[in-house]
């Protein structure tokens, strides 16, 4: 297996790169998170063109769940002191581990190469979709995002934008605020990876048209969606 050589910030090309991941199981016409990430991508392309945009639909093309071979290889890497991805192939012991690394390395490479990571994240059962969690579990390979020389995060300069869609209301001050395990999880996860530029944009009450107990909240839903759209537009505009 040929080792990957992910782009680091020191060797980055001047053209910006965007890694765009959608995780909604809905069709595009029914998915608020997909429409909102699409709005960002449209503005990004207007500024930067098609080049540098990488897209994954995690629902249509799911990332395989972890196997014992993945965890065994990960522990071996940890014992070696969290070696960089390019040196992982030298530690692979068998075909099962090679298969796991072959499924993992391109995802690590894509994230390391991205200047901006854009996530479309609907709320499923108070948290993130399983399709996104599978990507998170696999891409977070031991040592993949740590500079082996300085110990600093290789994602410290990566901008992460999480676009959330929630069928109900979970924002600050709402009765269900404490039931939000979506935004706090994403903040904690990316913070743990050393990401310092994290923006969370949430559209609330997105199922007001189908859930009877939300009747009467249509104006609030429309205002939340409009605010999310405006925030996304502002994230694309030049500073």
Per-chain topology:
Elements: E1 18-22, H1 32-48, E2 53-57, H2 68-79, H3 95-113, E3 116-122, H4 130-139, E4 159-165, H5 183-192, E5 197-203, H6 218-236
Parallel strand pairs: 1-2, 1-3, 3-4, 4-5
Helix pairs in contact: 1-6, 2-3
Short description:
With 239 residues, this protein is an alpha/beta fold. It has 6 helices and 5 strands; from the N terminus they run E-H-E-H-H-E-H-E-H-E-H.
Mean pLDDT rating: 92
Kindly report the name of the CATH homologous superfamily.
Flavodoxin domain
In total, the number of domains comes to 1
- Level-1 CATH class name: Alpha Beta
Structural class: alpha/beta
Q: What value does the Rg take, in angstroms?
A: 19 Å
Order of helices and strands: EHEHHEHEHEH
Shape designation: globular
N-to-C CA distance:
43 Å
Overview of this structure, please?
There is one protein chain. With 239 residues, the protein is an alpha/beta fold. It has one domain: Flavodoxin domain (Rossmann fold), CATH 3.40.50.360. The protein is built from 6 helices and 5 strands. It has helices at residues 32-48, 68-79, 95-113, 130-139, 183-192, 218-236; strands at 18-22, 53-57, 116-122, 159-165, 197-203. A 5-stranded parallel beta sheet has the order 2-1-3-4-5, sandwiched between helices. Helix 4 links the parallel strand 3 and strand 4 (159-165). Helix 1 packs parallel to helix 6 and helix 2 packs across helix 3. The longest helix has 19 residues, at 95-113. The protein starts with 17 loop residues before the first strand and ends with a helix. Residues 1-13 have low confidence and may be disordered.
